[in-house]
């Protein structure tokens, strides 16, 4: 459970962090530009992000979502769901080409490569990784994240521990020299909260949809949101203390790490590039999946096409893109946060909690049935049928969803080897079991669908 929560949290942070966060450009414009008031804004984000991430990943797991469209259709009216669906798809595309622009700026600032070179390499990496399945994609993203977290922590602590200037001086310098398109720190915080959710919503839903336990998915999202908010607060303070040295840089975090140690600067440049890759991969992958819903077989064609179109738009200046595109997306993102968190708090939270307990019960009963040392009785069978029948997923979907985890646990605890063919039949077996029970009682029900 703890390992799963940690992996989900790292994967969520990876798809949310983005080029603007990893580079420090977002923190500079949305927080540092308001001096010490920016820290208050970062603190507000630290409170909001974990709860929002928890709700989003629980929704993904609850509906076994393969794209964001299924969640929106289930929790909102038809008109609002369509608006959110199209709005998120457009936002994903915008964030995607901003990530590609950030990749070009990264290698240009650190190694002097032409802007198009860094963007082109990123496009190739994204297209290759996007050919894998969701589990592999989540694994790739989660594996990149720890290195960037370590570097951001190092840069933040270095800036704070070596600061020797005037606190009032850096506050006044930041307000005078760092520009923002938003009028005050509170509106900037609200806007950035929506923006930061936008870059990760679609892929977060898919990550949640790959985890059968809403409880584990939710706590993983909470952890990822906590990491995001904590590092945002730390780096806002770090960049504010060094604002006179980094405010003209496209990638202020990288400039700060280069000041700390040139070798670490090279490592940070590569890590930042990989974090940009994780977000670019997340938004283009989930966008490709969504656009290909009517024809899933065309996913790869659609995915490659939207990535290449994004590459064409990535030649616009990175700093200008962050300053002009992101605030517009942020206001739209606030609507998404309000709908997702609002519906979760009002009604969905109790339903998801009950379904999580139900799935735990199904898993425990299946493991009990697989253990040759235990006696399976009609009472156990009846309890299993009832739990499966009450699930929001059809029996076959629920069995397919849980099969990998259940059989892996059975092999570890009992030592028995279960053929792969038998593992793949769990969904069919549960569907058959509930159907037979329904015929006995005359209902013929196989459980509600989702």
UniProtKB/TrEMBL annotation:
Annotated Basic and acidic residues bias: 429-440
Record keywords: Membrane, Transmembrane, Transmembrane helix
Region: Disordered, residue numbers: 429-450
Source organism, top-level taxon: Bacteria
Matching InterPro entries: YkvI-like
Transmembrane segments: 34-62, 83-105, 111-132, 144-165, 185-207, 219-243, 263-286, 298-322, 328-348
PANTHER family assigned to the protein according to its UniProt record, in alphabetical order: CONSERVED MEMBRANE PROTEIN (PTHR37814), MEMBRANE PROTEIN (PTHR37814:SF1)
Protein name: Membrane protein YkvI
Native source species: Rothia santali
Organism phylogeny: Bacteria, Bacillati, Actinomycetota, Actinomycetes, Micrococcales
């Amino acid at each position: 459970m703890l390992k799963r929560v940690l992996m989900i949290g790292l994967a969520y942070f990876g798809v949310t962090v983005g080029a603007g966060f990893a580079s420090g450009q977002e923190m500079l414009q949305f927080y540092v530009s308001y001096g010490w008031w920016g820290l208050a804004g970062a603190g507000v984000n630290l409170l909001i992000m974990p709860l929002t991430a928890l709700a989003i990943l629980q929704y993904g797991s609850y509906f076994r979502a393969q794209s964001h469209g299924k969640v929106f259709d289930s929790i909102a009216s038809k008109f609002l769901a369509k608006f959110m669906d199209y709005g998120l798809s457009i936002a994903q595309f915008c964030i995607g080409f901003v990530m590609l622009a950030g990749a070009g700026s990264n290698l240009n600032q650190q190694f002097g490569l032409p802007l198009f070179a860094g963007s082109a390499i990123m496009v190739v990496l994204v297209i290759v990784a996007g050919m894998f399945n969701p589990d592999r994609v989540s694994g790739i993203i989660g594996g990149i994240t720890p290195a960037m977290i370590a570097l951001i922590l190092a840069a933040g602590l270095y800036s704070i521990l070596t600061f020797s200037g005037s606190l009032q001086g850096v506050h006044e310098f930041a307000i005078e020299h760092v520009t923002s398109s938003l009028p005050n720190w509170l509106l900037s915080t609200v806007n950035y909260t929506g923006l930061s959710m936008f870059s990760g919503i679609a892929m977060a839903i898919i990550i949640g949809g790959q985890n059968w336990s809403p409880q584990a998915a939710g706590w993983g999202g909470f952890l990822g949101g906590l990491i995001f908010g904590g590092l945002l607060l730390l780096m806002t303070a770090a960049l504010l203390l060094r604002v006179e040295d980094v405010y003209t840089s496209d990638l202020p975090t990288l400039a700060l790490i280069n000041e700390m140690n040139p070798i670490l600067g090279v490592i940070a440049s590569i890590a930042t590039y990989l974090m940009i890759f994780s977000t670019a991969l997340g938004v283009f992958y989930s966008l490709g999946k969504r656009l290909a819903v009517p024809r899933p077989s065309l996913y790869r064609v659609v995915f490659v096409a939207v990535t290449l179109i994004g590459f064409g738009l990535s030649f616009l200046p990175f700093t200008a893109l962050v300053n002009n595109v992101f605030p517009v997306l942020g206001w739209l993102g606030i609507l998404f946060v309000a709908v997702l968190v609002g519906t979760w708090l009002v009604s969905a939270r109790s339903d998801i909690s009950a379904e999580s307990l139900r799935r735990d019960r199904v898993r425990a009963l299946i493991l009990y049935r697989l253990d040759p040392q235990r006696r399976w009785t009609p009472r156990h069978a009846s309890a299993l049928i009832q739990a499966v029948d009450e699930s929001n997923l059809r029996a076959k979907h629920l069995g397919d969803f849980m099969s990998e985890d259940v059989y892996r646990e059975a092999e570890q605890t009992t030592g028995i080897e279960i053929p792969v063919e038998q593992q793949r039949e769990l969904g069919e077996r549960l569907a058959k079991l509930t159907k037979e029970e329904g015929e006995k009682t005359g209902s013929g029900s196989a459980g509600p669908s989702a």
